[in-house]
User: Which sequence fits this backbone?
């Protein structure tokens, strides 16, 4: 009896299911980001362009464009991502707790709520540095 082939088949099936779900989540995130960008007065199509979508997200949260470089530095990118995520929530009038749970932990749901919800975008004003 060959148990290896049935194990390999099951593993392949699980991996295929994982990739399918990840692909669906990615498409949903693109749609949600598109809607968020449009609400913020930015071009929605920017959600599908790598790197440029980060620049547009930085503009939505009123952070400098050069911060895109910080996203390329390991460990620093995690800190910057947290700042941008919390600023995005703040831009739509959401609290820090809401941003943590729905933009960080359950991101697909949180981004859909921001994109398709009734919350209005309000640009965060920052002091000149």
Assistant:
């Amino acid at each position: 009896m060959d148990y290896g082939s049935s194990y390999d088949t099951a593993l392949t099936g699980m991996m295929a299911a994982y990739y399918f779900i990840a692909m669906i989540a990615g498409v949903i995130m693109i749609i949600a980001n598109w809607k968020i960008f449009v609400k913020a007065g930015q071009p929605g199509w920017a959600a599908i362009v790598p790197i440029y979508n980060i620049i547009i997200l930085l503009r939505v949260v009123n952070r400098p464009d050069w911060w895109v470089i910080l996203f390329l530095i390991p460990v620093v990118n995690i800190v910057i991502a947290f700042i941008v995520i919390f600023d995005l929530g703040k831009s739509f009038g959401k609290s820090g707790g809401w941003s943590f749970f729905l933009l960080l932990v359950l991101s697909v749901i949180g981004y859909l709520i921001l994109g398709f919800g009734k919350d209005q975008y309000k640009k965060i004003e920052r002091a000149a540095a």
